[in-house]
């Protein structure tokens, strides 16, 4: 059996979430207090993003982030075996009608998403929408974990597309008359190479470089652009509200979508700061 090599993860995945959260609690103590995984990066990022907050407030957000981070790890493993009933219980869509209306208007969508909430659970979107769902990703160097992540993401019907082949794949699907909803994560830090494409804007109190891929693809394709605003209602339950950034971006100014996206992401972060991935070095580049 092809997936037999992932047996240890399947074994973990069949464990009920309340018990997996006990494992998450243990992981939190290990990751935060003993290993101290990227604590320097997290603390520095939080101080940049929230200069008005006291050290006590920063520490509170920091601990909440690590608790959420550990929860997300076990939730992602649970994705391997979650059924539709469990998905509907744990994923709430506030305004599903927006996506339905775009489908009826014959519009494909760029879902300009971020490392907010449990972004891996966006793999459940095929359960809710008529669009063919694709997800752009950067292949991992470790082949085993790259295959595992593709398995997790594609189980419900998501087509995983290497970022380098993204636009070409979308055009192929368009030629096949398929309406697509395309998940593109836009909050990674661009390459430091001087020729690497990047756009600078004010974000969380600091000039920040953004990748330009989603903006370029949206303008070329004229797909509607939506930001999925994520809220964590309680442990293991997330709500998404879709924010329409542009219905016909082809006529919009270059990089206008990055401006709109960065503002939507900033608003989302300010509502629930612990849900963003503070452990990546978002501000390693200087303007």
Automatic annotation (TrEMBL):
Q: Where are the transmembrane segments?
A: 12-35
Main location class: membrane
Where found? Cell inner membrane
Gene Ontology MF, one: acyltransferase activity
Its GO CC terms are: plasma membrane
What InterPro entries does this protein map onto?
Answer: LipA_acyltrans
Is Protease among this UniProt entry's keywords?
no
Q: Which GO terms describe its biological process?
A: glycolipid biosynthetic process
Q: What keywords tag this UniProt record?
A: Acyltransferase, Cell inner membrane, Cell membrane, Membrane, Transferase, Transmembrane, Transmembrane helix
PANTHER family of this UniProt entry?
Answer: LIPID A BIOSYNTHESIS LAUROYL ACYLTRANSFERASE (PTHR30606), PHOSPHATIDYLINOSITOL MANNOSIDE ACYLTRANSFERASE (PTHR30606:SF10)
Tell me the protein's name: Lysophospholipid acyltransferase family protein
Query: What lineage is on file?
Result: Bacteria, Pseudomonadati, Bacteroidota, Cytophagia, Cytophagales
């Amino acid at each position: 059996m092809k997936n037999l090599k992932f047996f240890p993860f399947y074994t973990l995945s069949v464990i009920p979430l309340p018990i997996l959260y006990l494992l998450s609690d243990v992981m939190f103590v290990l990751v935060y207090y003993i290993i101290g995984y990227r604590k320097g990066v997290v603390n520095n990022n939080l101080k940049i993003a929230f200069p008005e907050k006291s050290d006590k407030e920063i520490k509170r957000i920091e601990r909440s982030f690590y608790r959420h981070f550990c929860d997300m790890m076990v939730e992602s493993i649970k994705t391997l075996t979650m059924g539709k009933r469990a998905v509907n219980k744990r994923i709430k869509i506030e305004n599903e009608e927006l996506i339905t209306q775009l489908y009826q208007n014959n519009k494909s969508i760029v879902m300009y998403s971020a490392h907010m909430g449990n972004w891996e659970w966006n793999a459940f979107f095929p359960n809710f929408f008529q669009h063919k769902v694709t997800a752009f990703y950067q292949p991992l160097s470790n082949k085993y974990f790259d295959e595992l992540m593709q398995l997790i993401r594609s189980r419900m019907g998501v087509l995983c597309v290497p970022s380098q082949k993204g636009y070409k794949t979308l055009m192929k699907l368009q030629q096949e008359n398929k309406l697509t909803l395309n998940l593109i994560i836009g909050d990674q830090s661009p390459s430091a190479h001087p020729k690497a494409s990047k756009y600078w804007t004010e974000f969380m109190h600091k000039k920040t470089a953004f990748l330009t891929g989603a903006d370029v693809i949206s303008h070329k394709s004229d797909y509607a652009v939506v930001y999925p605003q994520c809220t964590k209602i309680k442990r293991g339950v997330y709500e998404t509200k879709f924010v329409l950034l542009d219905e016909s971006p082809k006529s919009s100014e270059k990089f206008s979508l990055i401006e709109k996206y960065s503002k939507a992401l900033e608003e989302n972060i300010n509502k629930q700061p612990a849900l963003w991935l503070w452990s990546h070095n978002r501000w390693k580049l200087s303007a």
